[in-house]
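Researcher: Go.
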Amino acid sequence: MSESAHDEARGDADRARHDTGRARSDTGRHETEEERADRKWGDLLQEIRVAQTGVQILFGFLLTVVFTPRYAQLEQADRTIYIVTVVLGASATGALIGPVSLHRIVAGRRVKERAVVWASRLTLAGLVLLLATMTASLLLILRVATHDGYVPWLVTGIVAWYLFCWFAVPMWVRGRHTAP
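Model: Structure:
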């Protein structure tokens, strides 16, 4: 590289810096790596709060079902669905609360970027488990409420709606509105 080209490249890098020394990232923001990790962590926590509330309410409800008089009258297939649903709910709760524990254990260790990556993975796993929990819950409730053959079709339609809202739309937006 010639000296003038080198100076020009250095000038471009200098212009990309803010007066505070923050580098402009590929997101168009002027932030350091630590600031970006902090922002991503804050965003993730807000997202987790929504999912945690839903899964905790659902899981709490599921835990009470076994203590109702109606539980003893359930068919074996419905009891099996119930047990699977409770296990899925417990798993979803663990995955969605996991990022809080992760943050608490690694706080101050200068690994926030990695913590954000792992917390994101736990959150995505928690969302998939929440989807499975809601699917099993719907199946159980509709089977007990109606005993009709259309229940699996209705549940399939609702799951397709969840998949569309939770995954298809975000992936479409991601693919359409982000650079490769």
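Model: Residues 52 and 97 are 7 Å apart (CA to CA).
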